[in-house]
Design brief:
- By secondary structure, the protein is α/β, with parallel strands linked by helices.
- The protein has one domain: NAD(P)-binding Rossmann-like Domain (Rossmann fold, 3-Layer(aba) Sandwich), CATH 3.40.50.720.
- It is built from 10 helices and 14 strands.
- The strands form 4 sheets. It has an 8-stranded mixed β-sheet with strand order 3-4-2-1-5-6-8-12, sandwiched between helices. Strands 7-14 form a two-stranded parallel sheet. A two-stranded parallel ribbon has the order 9-11.
- Helix 1 links the parallel strand 1 and strand 2.
- It is globular.
- It starts with a strand and ends with a helix.
């Protein structure tokens, strides 16, 4: 029988997942809050449904796999479990696997040291706390229902139209310097690669994977490499303590760690398409029009 994946949240990553899924004959249904987008989407060969109980129940009657790609709610935890947990239980016999897209922000600040899936959460900011709480909710649900659950902890996502090359072309002309700071990244196509690899060979129980590339790097190093690709003048360097940052950006810079992808590659025998930011950005420039 053709697999049927129900995606909660048709965002950036879900768009690329839908494109790839149709190539391997996976049926896609995804939720959207945009009423103008409802119905069959020819570009992605998928059905877009409203984030409502009636629409979700219809989809769950035939869904074999479920992926949660919605952010946690500030007040009420995970919005999918909160609103549709009872429906998931009702159609639990149909569901072969659940995936949850989380964030490496759940690790917090490790002062530049490497983290893996067993690393503790340290000095979490608000977003990290929300993500960790949502992960725990899904783990409890999966254990109670005896369902395979995979948590994908995603590093900073980049890809077509969402990358530093595009930001530079839009007018960015400076870069923030913070000594000893590392960030991990992942190309959206490699996220899709990981999701489909697990979907087609789901493990028993609960599994967590870091989804990051091989080469964590300071943001200013990546910015300056991108500027060189575009043959731009050197960027203006701004010290971190002098930079006007939003609260979200401040939280972003307060978390310093390098994320290991060893488990992902070893257990799934996965070879990343873009193992580092240099290969990813170069491909975006020359093939995707960034």
């Amino acid at each position: 029988m053709r697999p049927h994946l129900l995606i909660f949240g048709f965002g950036y990553t879900a768009h690329f997942l839908a494109q790839k899924a149709r190539e391997i004959n996976i049926q896609i249904t995804a939720t959207t809050r945009d009423r103008d987008a409802l119905g069959y989407n020819r570009a992605f060969d998928c059905e877009l449904i409203h984030f409502s109980e009636k629409s979700i129940e219809v989809a769950l009657k035939t869904a074999s796999h479920v992926l949660i790609s919605t952010p946690p709610n500030h007040d009420h935890g995970d919005p999918v479990l909160m609103r549709f947990g009872h429906l998931l239980k009702k159609y639990i016999k149909n569901i072969q696997w659940i995936g949850y897209l989380s964030s490496t922000g759940v690790y917090g600040d490790h002062q530049g040291y490497w983290v893996d899936e067993s690393s503790p959460s340290i000095a979490l900011g608000n977003q990290g706390k929300l993500r960790l709480a949502a992960e725990n909710e899904w783990c409890l649900f999966a254990k109670a229902q005896q369902l395979p659950l995979t948590i994908f902890r995603l590093a900073g996502i980049y890809g077509p139209q969402r990358n530093v090359l595009a930001r530079l072309m839009a007018g960015k002309d400076d870069t923030i310097i913070k000594d000893g700071q590392f960030f991990s990244r992942i190309h959206v196509e490699d996220i899709v690669l990981a999701i489909l690899a697990v979907m087609q060979h789901p493990q028993v129980g609960i599994t967590i994977y870091n989804v990051a590339d091989d080469e964590p790097a300071p943001s200013h190093v990546v910015d300056e490499y991108a500027a060189s690709l575009l043959q731009r003048p050197p960027l203006k360097r701004v010290a971190y303590d002098k930079a006007p940052l939003s609260p979200m950006a401040q939280e972003f810079y307060s978390n310093n760690k390098r994320v290991s992808n060893a488990k992902l590659k070893q257990e799934l025998n996965l070879e990343l398409t873009y193992p580092n930011y240099k290969e990813g950005l170069a491909h975006l420039l020359h093939h995707d029009g960034y």
